[in-house]
Amino acid sequence: MAKLDIARGRRATLLIATRKGLWQLTADTTRRKWRLTGPHFLGHVVHHCVADPRDGKRLLAAARTGHLGPTIFRSADRGRTWHEAKRPPAFREGSGRAVDHTFWLAPGHAGEPKTWYAGTSPQGLFRSEDDGATWVSVDGFNEHPMRKTWCGDDKDGTPDGPKLHSILIDPRDSNHMYIGMSSGGVFESGNGGVAWRPLNAGVKADFLPEPTPEFGHDPHCVRLHPVLPDRLYQQNHCGIYRLDRPAERWQDIGASMPKSVGAIGFPMVVHPREPDTIWVFPMDGTRVWPRTSPAGKPAVYRSVNGGKSWQRQAAGLPKTQAWLTVKRQAMTADRGSPVGVYFGTSSGEIWGSRDEGRTWKCLAAHLPHVYAVEVA
Amino acid sequence: MRVLIPGPLRDYTANAAAVSAEGLTLGSLLADLDRRFPGLRFRIIDEQGRIRRHIKFFVDGVQAKDLNPALDSATEVMIVCALSGG
Fold first, then answer.
1. Which residues of B, range 15-54, sit inside 8 Å of A by Cβ?
2. Shortest CB distance from A98 goes to which of B8, B48, B54?
3. For chain B, give me the number of helices (H) and strands (E)?
4. N or C, which terminus of chain A has less Cβ within 10 Å?
5. Contact B47 A71 (CB under 8 A)
């Protein structure tokens, strides 16, 4: 996840990936005024655009169009100019599988400059060691004999395809990583992606005949805390969870959410410095899963004690008849003090808070369906 | 032979709507196109050699279902971006 270091004097820029292109929203130094620029790649479905925190200039964007297959665009100058990857992520010829789109991009370990990871739909993991110019399969996952069993079939994916997401690199060890899959669950590798094992104990999967299986779960978004890397959080299809390694069993922290709101949502955001502070954006997961704000009353919920309790943060957000959906990559935080929190909606609005969620302001509207918001 | 390029692919051909390329089959023609315009092939053919879902090829006006049709220098190949939704 890209991070803004306001201490270095850089202005906050949001990278807004949408169903119809990429926009940038740049703040003044106070984060009160914002300027929208773009689009880049108008008409492309941009699933994710991420800045490289290791050099502050490199951007990668995952794109396709309705007609054309998936590719990766690269910029070395914060989006002024772009070049296409020479070899985008692609499965082994003869495997029978084809990448429909790259869904998730993640910079590699700080000690591995130029290294990136990509997660695809259908579930695949790819690695680049040249700033995204060429990508190779992480065969330890893509060719794993259990992969098909872990991932399920077409009926086990999200409406626009099953996805590999939430690629998390342990800042203490480049070989230690986690991934999330919808569906499939959370998996861990301790050797750079050569071997993998499921890490889902304690997580519900109430849509399966066996409600507590070893794998087959639907983690919507998983985050690792950068200051306390043994602390993981996940917003799951079946609730909100926390895991403190080396423990193996996730703790249900969604039970403390108000019953009228529930614990279902897509995104999960962690505070850049405080491991106990997190934000979620609940959605309606009842009956036929509208995936909109519960009762049409959007609100962010924050916990400052690792999920023991939650506070509603809705000041400035519409009070009623606002049926917002916020996708799993469409909510993020900067590194300011106080932290800025941002989310984008499927109805094309960008909302921001410069006081850690206490008050909200609409920063942009009338954009296409927002798929991802990241800080550059 | 002459290859007609649809709008979504013209970023690769410097905006040319028609280009020249060579090949004895549609598959070898696409390999030559990719040499001339790097990256173009993967946008319309997946890594398993399958024509992507919303792409069609017409060889002298007849739709090709795969990459096997034979070509000659007088053949005209049209690449079409089919309907793909709003």
1. 38-39, 42-50, 52, 54
2. B48
3. 2, 5
4. N
5. no
The per-residue pLDDT of chain B, averaged, comes to 96
**What does the DSSP 8-state code read for residue A217?**
B
Specify the pLDDT at position A10.
62
d(CA B68, CA B30): 11
Encoded amino acid at A101, one letter: H
- Smallest CA–CA distance, residue A89 to chain B, in Å, is 10
Pairing of strands A13-18, B76-81: unpaired
Cβ contacts of A204 within 8 Å, gap of 6 or more: A211, A212, A217, A236, A238, A239, A252
User: A31 by DSSP, 3-state: which?
Assistant: coil
Give CA separation, B74 vs A206, B5, B26, B71, B77, in Å: 61, 17, 13, 8, 10
Contact (CB, 8 A) for A272 and A338: no
Query: Which DSSP letter does residue A211 get?
Result: S
Which H helix or E strand runs over A334? none
Structural domain boundaries enclosing A126:
6-375
Domain count, chain A: 1
Strand, helix or coil at A237?
A: coil
> What residue ranges define each of the domains in chain B, with the CATH number in brackets?
2-81 (3.10.20.30)
C-alpha A83/C-alpha A57 separation (Å) is 14
Residue A294: partners with Cβ closer than 8 Å, 6 or more residues away: A260, A261, A262, A282, A283, A284
With CB atoms and an 8 Å threshold, state whether B43 touches A68: yes
pTM, entire model: 0.96
Name the residue among A67, A94, A96 with its Cβ closest to that of B8. A67
Amino acid at A71: T
Q: Are A233 and A265 in contact, with CB atoms under 8 Å apart?
A: no
CATH number of the structural domain spanning residue A276: 2.130.10.10
- Separation CA A37–CA A27 (nearest Å): 11
Residues from chain A that touch B52, judged by Cβ atoms under 8 A, are: 67-69
pLDDT at position A115 is 98
Residue B15, classified by CB atoms within 10 Å of its CB into exposed (0-12), middle (13-18) or buried (19+), is exposed
DSSP H or E run through A364: strand A361-364
Cβ-contact A328, A374 below 8 angstroms: no
The answer to whether A71 contacts B43, with C-beta atoms less than 8 Å apart, is yes
